[in-house]
Amino acid sequence: MHDHLAVPIRLGFLCVVFNLLGLGASNGCPLQFRFVVFGRAIFIVGYTTMDGPNNCPSPKLHTRLRLWEFADRYVFEPVDRLADLLLSVSRVNGSMNLIEELPQRGPSTSPKVQLVFGVIGVLKLAVGTYLVVITDRDCVGSYLGHAVFKVIGLRVLPCNSSLSASAEQKNVDTEFSELLDAAERTIGLYFSYDSNLTVISQRLHELGDEFNSLPLWRQAEPRFLWNGYLLEPLIENKLHQYLLPVVQGSFQSIHTEVRSEKVNVTLIARRCTRRIGTRMWRRGADLEGYAANFVESEQIMQSKGFTASYVQVRGSMPFLWEQIVDLTYKPNFDVVRVEEAPCVLERHFHDLQKKYGAVVAVDLVNTHGGEGCLYERYAKSIEPILNEDIRFVHFDFHKICGHIHFERLSQLYDQIEDYLKKHKYFLLSDKCEKIE
Fold this sequence. Notes:
This protein has helices at residues 167-183, 201-212, 216-219, 228-236, 341-356, 369-382, 397-401, 410-423; strands at 3-8, 36-38, 41-43, 65-69, 73-78, 86-90, 96-99, 112-116, 119-125, 128-143, 146-158, 189-191, 246-258, 261-271, 295-303, 306-316, 321-323, 333-335, 359-363, 390-394, 426-428. By secondary structure, it is of the alpha+beta class. The longest helix has 17 residues, at 167-183.
């Protein structure tokens, strides 16, 4: 693990448990929970707000649509009775418009019909336009009192039937089609028709009812809106009831009991859309300070009407470095543009402070070998910005814990206990009033 764990403290501290737990997922709408394991880091994350539904006068999103596949168009017919108009999408160029009824069908016309559960968006490429829809979903729990679904099936619908392409263009189209087939197998996508999954609960509470009454796509945090680009054509056409925000990450929750008290625990991890990539190929931060594979994790616990929220974030070490992938088991690291490291790191932590408040940065890498060079660069670059609200802690996870002694993580807790308790956690009363 060549990453760092940053704990935004203003959102508080409820508890840190240093042992591995894993509870199975459920298939219905009951809850489930799991402790997060990021490489060598083991921690719980999160907490949220209100138990009841949001008061949202904006148009309800369509939850079930009948997809008609005509020769010249796709037609989406709402079957949830939330609207009378149907959405027509041209199979020639992807243009969209609302219609009052289905096209006339002759004796020889037999369009395919399929039930879908939402439109992810529209992908515009050089080789044509493609529509992405949800063909299957699974209810995995609830967030702020509203059902949360996992995307089980996707389908990419081509809207370029009129293109007269050359042989070279057709080859390119074939390559894109293979990539689109891979997109259909994208995992870890979650959505809710009624609740904003992209924003932590404390932020939602602070923004108030006026913000929560906006359409979900307007509420969405761009950093965690996985299909933001795909929604743009739908936004341009003002198709508000089809604008379904999607996050990539994980969502798990459970109903359990603690000392005979019923407790609902929810864990949601949101993967940032900036500087994403596969492990080893995507490392460090860019010049703007955005760390590779940044994830915001929130734990929500509810009991006796009270709701608490705790948030942690993680990402690659926030300076310019890379790992050149080769045939070796552990490719070497290379710190590039060393002189830029302090500025990049300062931008990264300034952004964290702006969004979360005080931060404890926990560095988990080894102190020797290639990782040791990264640790030294990290420690040296962050030193000028350390203050009461930015604290740096190094914890050699591999040396201290190895593969089995996770109880030794209590040593890390001892190092940051005072700082965590000082900033506490976000807590709401049974009347949705902020306590701390």
